[in-house]
Amino acid sequence: MKMLEVQDLNVWFGGGRDRVDAVKHASFDVAQGESFGLVGESGSGKSTILRAITGLAPDWSGKIMVEGQAIGHKRPRTFFKTVQMVFQDPYASLHPRHSVDQVLGETLQLHGFKDIDARVVKLLDDVGLGQKFRFRYPHQLSGGQRQRVAIARALAPEPDLLLLDEPTSALDVSVQAEILNLLADLRTEHNLTYVMVSHDLSVVGHMCDRLAVMKDGEIVEVLDVDVLRHLNAEHPYSRQLLEASL
Amino acid sequence: MMSVLLDVENLWVKFPSRHGVFDAVRGVSFTLGRERLGIVGESGSGKSMTGRAILRLIRPPGIVEADHINLEGVNLLDKTEKEMRDVRGQRISMVMQDPKFSLNPVMTIGDQIIEAYRLHSKASKAEAYKKSLEMLEAVSIRDPERVMRAYPHEMSGGMGQRIMIAMMLIPNPQILIADEPTSALDVSVQRQVLDIMDKLVKDRGMGLIFISHDLNLVADFCDRVLIMYAGRIVEVCDAEKLHAAKHPYTRGLLNSLPRLDAPRDRLEVLQRDPAWSEAPSVSGRV
Hints:
The complex is a heterodimer of chains A (246) and B (286).
Chain A: E1 2-13, E2 20-31, E3 35-39, H1 46-54, E4 60-66, E5 69-70, H2 77-82, E6 83-86, H3 100-110, H4 116-126, H5 143-155, E7 161-165, H6 173-190, E8 193-198, H7 201-207, E9 210-215, E10 218-224, H8 225-229, H9 236-244
Parallel strand pairs in A: 3-8, 3-9, 6-7, 7-8
Antiparallel strand pairs in A: 1-2, 1-4, 4-5, 9-10
Helix pairs in contact in A: 3-4, 5-6
Chain B: E1 6-17, E2 20-32, E3 36-40, H1 47-54, E4 63-65, E5 68-71, E6 74-75, H2 81-87, E7 92-95, H3 99-102, H4 109-120, H5 125-138, H6 144-149, H7 157-169, E8 175-179, H8 187-204, E9 207-212, H9 215-221, E10 224-229, E11 232-238, H10 248-255, H11 274-278
Parallel strand pairs in B: 3-9, 3-10, 7-8, 8-9
Antiparallel strand pairs in B: 1-2, 1-4, 1-5, 5-6, 10-11
């Protein structure tokens, strides 16, 4: 079954003279349990695709289907139980005056869970933080620990599809390895599907099965990671990216 | 023997805090000739602090202590604040990480470069304008006349960083300290900016201190590398031999990188050894 299908997606900002077409005619699909990568330089529209899927970019046309259900501009409650997003910068995506307990507790409550206390403990264990971080504030956590909290928050509603927007680009390489390992473990444990945006080809190569290369808002090539590993990309731009990242 | 431009001996940077004095840099020594010297390490390892301490940019309550920081035999620590102003920009320049925060948002690019140039020389406005245009061309900015009239928000990140480099290089400094100059940029633009810096360093015979957290980049770009951990230098090696580095910390960092050509199920996670931060600093002197 297809977890996510995107057909002829266009996303734009502004109108009239100031209109910017951020994504143009993007189509791809992601199977259940797959890990799919989106790569490209900044401004190529890769993050915008994720934002359009979650509803953070209001102006879009085309077709987005999650678990076979087409998504309209108004998203039902169940959508947010299925799809969750982890943002790039863990320093900006956590409320500075909310403790970890509040961040997770509030999310759980919004999703209508009753056994919040037990779930917060479980979530913290899942992301390898444990009890002692429960009542800390973001400023008391390192970058890697914050990103773990952000991942725990995304896991709270027990989603099937996780959208990862450059989850490690703000972190050191040593911490990046920890987070990537954690994401790989969580995927097998919870049977998750990932769509991961990154500008780092080797990170996408490590995490994903297939990837799409984007340039100027268009998907120029969709290829298997094996093809990428053997440096067999077809489109000249993908080749250029490959060369730059070796 | 290479001529030594900068000689740093036993540099400490300390910040007094409520929980006692925090040592950000602990007894670092190195020399810089006309070469590209890389400093790598994780965030918090003291690499940026080392760069700032050389220019005496650390403000109180931060404390900089060293046996000496000699710029061509003259100790920078003995200079008055006024004398330091002649060193900063003119003899040692610094390019910071994010061009968004280092350019003045309400001044045109041209005015900023001209101001920076005229501060250090007696040139007339017309001369400064001409020189600025030349510099922008040198960092391969197309249509420099238009860029001179533009404001920073009209520039992309890569252009902003090249403008910063142009501005820093106009007074023709002997040493350029680049603090993560490319980490806010895309891979493709990164290469461009590095090539420009490389060319300028070679043509002018400058010394470059290149601070970065990206091991591969440093291995590619620099001649010699200092690896810092917890405020100390744990290893010094030639850049081309970085991939054969011996210290467990360097090895750990290298192994934690995902690689396209060598897929693995799990990435290696760095196991930190408290002994690393205890061990005395390795000297980076030639």
